[in-house]
């Protein structure tokens, strides 16, 4: 890496780091304020709410990094442009493409940070935050939180989530015949995950259907084997946007193997990859702006432009996500649409700047 590369990379990373620090402080404050209504329920205290907000920081950082990269690159490169450093570089024979390449190197560093945050740190810490909140609010008592419907061969399971890592609430078990007729329906008051994908159902009552009668078994404990583990159920119960790419791929394979529609998880998987790659284009997008209309603009103007671009990208991502879920649209194409638009605009403006 040459001296010019280091100079540009340092300017972009420094401004991005400062802007991300401000965003994350605001994110912690907003999350902490949002938890005030739950403080006092069970053992959930102000310190628990603060811990919950801090554990969610990696997920917040991953979601905000594309906006932070765009803002940081506009502010960092804008400072160099206003101080005429970029003009000196251009006068010395360094092309716009070379400056964009240096900015892209900073974007690749930010992209690597995003992968670490999104794939390694954020998923387990987000799960830990949820467990802390649920455990202290409900003291390991079953609560009416989000449940999950899962198909495992000829069984369809509906499970209510619990605060414990291997403890769940009520479980409904629907057993189907090979020709998809309902054979039996059972309900357990509680479900516990045992070793080797064994489930222990407490207070299990089953109604079994035959052509001429319905037999009902009294409440009892039952143990059965299933390919659906407690870890897998926690994945299904989680927000797809909070899951790592590997976990999303597991869910896609399971849904496809059971002839279920994995559209939500397919969109989340490809959107996660596309959003991460968008960081590199977001950094390069700053180059034509600071060499053109924002060259002599003040810091406030550059910040407003960056915020408008970043918020526009974020809102487009959310709008497409809602459209994919509600309407029968191709999830892969729509997942890549915001990043494709960003890349097209960036490359077009760079070509024009040259």
Report on the structure:
The chain has 354 residues and is α+β, with helices and mostly antiparallel strands. The protein has 2 domains: 3-138 and 263-353, no CATH class; 154-226, no CATH class. It has helices at residues 3-34, 46-55, 57-82, 85-91, 96-138, 230-237, 245-257, 263-291, 299-326, 331-353; strands spanning 147-152, 155-160, 167-168, 171-176, 182-188, 190-193, 198-209, 214-225. A hairpin with a 2-residue loop joins strand 1 and strand 2. Helix 1 (3-34) packs antiparallel against helix 2 (46-55), helix 3 packs antiparallel against helix 9 (299-326) and helix 5 (96-138) packs across helix 8 (263-291). It is elongated. Mean pLDDT is 83; it is low at 140-145.
As residue ranges, the low-confidence spans are 140-145
Output the number of helix runs: 10
Q: How many domain modules?
A: 2
If you average the pLDDT, what whole number results?
A: 83
The helix-strand sequence is HHHHHEEEEEEEEHHHHH
Structural class: alpha+beta
The percent range for strand residues is 15-25%
Using the CA coordinates, give the radius of gyration: 26 Å
Count of strand segments: 8
Estimate percent helicity: 55-70%
């Amino acid at each position: 890496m040459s001296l010019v590369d280091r100079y540009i990379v340092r300017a972009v990373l420094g401004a991005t780091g400062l802007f991300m620090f401000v965003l994350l402080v605001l994110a912690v404050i907003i999350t902490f304020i949002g938890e005030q209504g739950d403080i006092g329920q069970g053992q959930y205290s102000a310190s628990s709410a603060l811990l919950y907000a801090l554990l969610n920081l990696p997920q917040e950082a991953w979601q905000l990094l594309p906006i932070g990269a765009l803002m940081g690159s506009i502010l960092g490169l804008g400072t160099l442009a206003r101080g005429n450093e970029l003009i000196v570089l251009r006068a010395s024979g360094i092309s716009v493409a070379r400056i964009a390449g240096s900015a892209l190197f900073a974007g690749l560093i930010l992209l690597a940070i995003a992968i670490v945050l999104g794939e390694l740190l954020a998923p387990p810490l987000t799960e830990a935050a949820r467990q802390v909140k649920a455990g202290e609010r409900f003291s390991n008592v079953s609560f009416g939180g989000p449940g999950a419907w899962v198909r495992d061969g000829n069984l369809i399971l509906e499970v209510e989530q619990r605060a414990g890592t291997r403890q769940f609430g009520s479980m409904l078990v629907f057993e189907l015949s090979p020709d998809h007729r309902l054979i039996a329906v059972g309900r357990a008051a509680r479900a516990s995950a045992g070793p080797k994908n064994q489930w222990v159902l407490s207070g299990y009552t089953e109604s079994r259907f035959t052509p001429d009668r319905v037999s009902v078994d009294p409440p009892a404990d039952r143990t059965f084997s299933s390919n659906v583990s407690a870890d897998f159920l926690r994945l299904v119960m989680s927000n797809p946007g909070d899951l790592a790419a590997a976990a999303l791929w597991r869910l896609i394979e399971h849904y496809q193997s059971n002839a279920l529609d994995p559209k939500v998880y397919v969109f989340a998987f490809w959107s996660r990859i596309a959003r991460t790659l968008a960081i590199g284009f977001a950094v390069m997008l700053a180059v034509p702006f600071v060499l053109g209309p924002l060259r002599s603009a003040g810091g406030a103007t550059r910040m407003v432009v960056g915020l408008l671009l970043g918020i526009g990208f974020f809102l487009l991502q959310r709008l497409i996500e809602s459209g994919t879920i509600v309407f029968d649209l191709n999830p892969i194409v729509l997942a890549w649409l915001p990043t494709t638009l960003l890349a097209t605009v960036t490359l077009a403006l760079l070509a024009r700047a040259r």
